[in-house]
Amino acid sequence: GQNIDQPTEMTATEGAIVQINCTYQTSGFNGLFWYQQHAGEAPTFLSYNVLDGLEEKGRFSSFLSRSKGYSYLLLKELQMKDSASYLCAVAPGAGSYQLTFGKGTKLSVIP
Amino acid sequence: DADVTQTPRNRITKTGKRIMLECSQTKGHDRMYWYRQDPGLGLRLIYYSFDVKDINKGEISDGYSVSRQAQAKFSLSLESAIPNQTALYFCATSEGTSGNEQFFGPGTRLTVL
């Protein structure tokens, strides 16, 4: 089976750094995705990790440890527009293009 | 123009009615997906299609059916809608290799009374 856990809600201050964690237990692993979703809108792609380590893309970075079944999304220099839900999703197996999504973390950025 | 479009964007219907949600894409992707999103439950996969001749059930396919009319079109039907099918429905597409992100349509908000 597939199980993906992430915190339900987080609050952080504008200009600060926030780390959103995701742990997963899946029957296979072929990569982990992070998506951003503003309320009532479509999810949009942020990052993809398939090998261990940190991937940096501007203010956003994503880390993966396959041995620990763990990933995090790091958001730096938070802006009000970063208030959104952040979805962790795992591709469970080689040749599998389905994604299993976590329930999402709703991030509120306050002044 | 949007790469992935969904129609209608909003729909209110009654229990027992047949409903079709449509998805079109101009990205040239082979793979298409239908998800539903409910508060507190996240995105759940209903059906997916890897090409016109390939249709697969996802996690929650009961009560739904799909049709892949062409590479660019993938429709989701609710044969007899029920209130617990009230949700936000998303169509998505992806390329044919692993590691490629899925691109989502704007969503259809369906309410079944």
Q: What report would you give on this structure?
A:
The complex is a heterodimer of chains A (111) and B (113). Chain A is built from no helices and eleven strands. In chain A, strands 2, 4, 5, 9, 10 and 11 form a six-stranded mixed beta sheet that branches. A five-stranded antiparallel beta sheet of chain A has the order 1-3-8-7-6, with no helix packed on it. Chain A starts with a strand and ends with a strand. Helices cover 0% and strands 54% of the residues of chain A. With 113 residues, chain B is mostly beta strands. Chain B is built from no helices and eleven strands. In chain B, the strands form two sheets. In chain B, strands 2, 4, 5, 6, 9, 10 and 11 form a seven-stranded mixed beta sheet that branches. A four-stranded antiparallel beta sheet of chain B has the order 1-3-8-7, with no helix packed on it. The N and C termini of chain B lie far apart (33 Å). Classes of the chains: A mainly beta (111), B mainly beta (113). Chains A and B meet through strand 5 and strand 10 of A and strand 5, strand 9 and strand 10 of B.
Compact description:
The complex is a heterodimer of chains A (111) and B (113). With 111 residues, chain A is mainly β.
Radius of gyration of chain A: 13 Å
Order of helices and strands of chain A: EEEEEEEEEEE
What's the count of strands of chain A? Answer: 11
Count of runs of 4 or more consecutive helical residues of chain B: 0
Shape descriptor of chain A reads globular
What letter string, H or E per element, gives the SSE order of chain B?
EEEEEEEEEEE
By DSSP (H or I, 4+ residues per run), the number of helices of chain A equals 0
Q: Kindly, what is the distance between the CA atoms of the first and last residues of chain A, rounded to a whole number of angstroms?
A: 41 Å
Q: Low-confidence parts of chain A, pLDDT < 50 over ≥5 residues?
A: none
